[in-house]
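Researcher: Re-running this chain for the archive, since the previous output was lost when a drive failed. Same request as before.
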Amino acid sequence: MFTGLISDVGEVVAIEQRGALIRMRIACSYPADGILLGASIACNGPCLTAVDIGTANGRTWFDVDAAAETLARTTVGSWVLGTKINLERSLRIGDELGGHLVTGHVDGVATIEALNAFDGMTKFDIRAPTVLAKFIAEKGSICLDGTSLTVNSVKDSLLSVLLIPHTLAVTTWGGLKRGDHLNIEVDLMARYAARLVDARS
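Model: Regenerated structure tokens:
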């Protein structure tokens, strides 16, 4: 489990095709001795497993494997050398829950349709997959590229979020543009509420 609060921005520094798997190496600023083999790390939203860990050129790196399901449902398959990645370590009992409960199980890919920068902030208009629209509510929580955000407005599958200067500075959001794709995970509580409604009807 995660909170959607980004703790580091990593960088893809190696990509290797291994049959149906893609192995990627992500450089980060986490201490190498603080990452356990098999640890879960949210990488732009998807929960990926650290399968190897080391240091090089003054930076820590960890390797992750992306399989068919991850490649089909997320943006991971489009990552290239140099791609910046929002990172979050898994939640520990006793940690502050500052965002919302995030599983790292991405539901699909959304697209930035427009953005408007003002007063150091940026408002993003984002098109979610139509099938996810029923899980998105105004003032509800949503996870986009691993970031816990509040939905400002929603109409059908078009939603808007507002990013403050701090978030733009410490995540990948400051470099995003119209047409970019985002990993989207809907709120866990909204998913269960909708399932209960469906079951009752």
